[in-house]
Amino acid sequence: MSPLDAVLEACRLRLRPILMTSLAFMFGVLPLALSTGAGSAGRNAIGTGVLGGMFSATVLGIFLVPLFFVEVRRRFSRSAGNAPVAQSTSTGEA
């Protein structure tokens, strides 16, 4: 399986769980970011920072990590002179 095919398959499998976890956390922090009343300035500051950080981490995790994986894999395979990688073959014997 090529690195690009592996990334596409992993994205297909992991996109929904990553989004569900991230959105659940962000919706949980939303009341903290939108709070009003006495002492809400501190809660708003913390909530906004946490919400922004989680959003940024989600975007990085979904888009940039797979992109970096493919790019690093491509660069290292070029620098190694495209040497063939030994693959193990199973004979079916235990």
From TrEMBL:
<dbReference type="GO" id="GO:0042910">
    <property type="term" value="F:xenobiotic transmembrane transporter activity"/>
</dbReference>
<feature type="transmembrane region" description="Helical">
    <location>
        <begin position="45"/>
        <end position="70"/>
    </location>
</feature>
<dbReference type="Pfam" id="PF00873">
    <property type="entry name" value="ACR_tran"/>
</dbReference>
<protein>
    <submittedName>
        <fullName>Multidrug efflux transporter</fullName>
    </submittedName>
</protein>
<dbReference type="InterPro" id="IPR001036">
    <property type="entry name" value="Acrflvin-R"/>
</dbReference>
<feature type="transmembrane region" description="Helical">
    <location>
        <begin position="18"/>
        <end position="39"/>
    </location>
</feature>
<keyword id="KW-0812">Transmembrane</keyword>
<keyword id="KW-0472">Membrane</keyword>
<dbReference type="GO" id="GO:0005886">
    <property type="term" value="C:plasma membrane"/>
</dbReference>
<keyword id="KW-1133">Transmembrane helix</keyword>
